[in-house]
Amino acid sequence: MARMGGIKEVKEIGNSEEMDSLARFAIEKYNKKENALLEFEKVVNAKEQVVAGNLYYITLEATDGGKKKVYETKVWVKPWIHFKEVQEFKLVRDA
């Protein structure tokens, strides 16, 4: 486990159902807010910070109108109270 406030890499993101689930959650919230139709492709990178729960920094690929693009999102999770919130979601570049 990361020490409080420290940011660490999440290992084995290719096999992480948790990271895929958080990325899909962020896309779902973005699609609802922006009336968009992004489709999840894969998690490219993920970091975790312990802050009254866990703050995940996720870089992901998603398809937008048939074109793959790279996005960054921050998802705050407090599992003991079943809380998840997207703090940020932004386009980084075309994939």
UniProtKB/TrEMBL annotation:
| InterPro entries assigned | Cystatin, Cystatin_dom, Cystatin_sf, Prot_inh_cystat_CS
One Pfam family per UniProt: Cystatin
Per UniProt, which keywords does this protein have? Answer: Protease inhibitor, Thiol protease inhibitor
Q: Which SMART domains match?
A: CY
Q: Which domain of life is it from?
A: Eukaryota
Q: Which CDD domains match?
A: CY
Specify the Cystatin domain's residue ranges.
Answer: 2-92
- Molecular function terms from GO: cysteine-type endopeptidase inhibitor activity
Q: What residue intervals traverse the membrane?
A: none
Q: Which family does it belong to?
A: Belongs to the cystatin family. Phytocystatin subfamily.
This protein is called what? Cysteine proteinase inhibitor
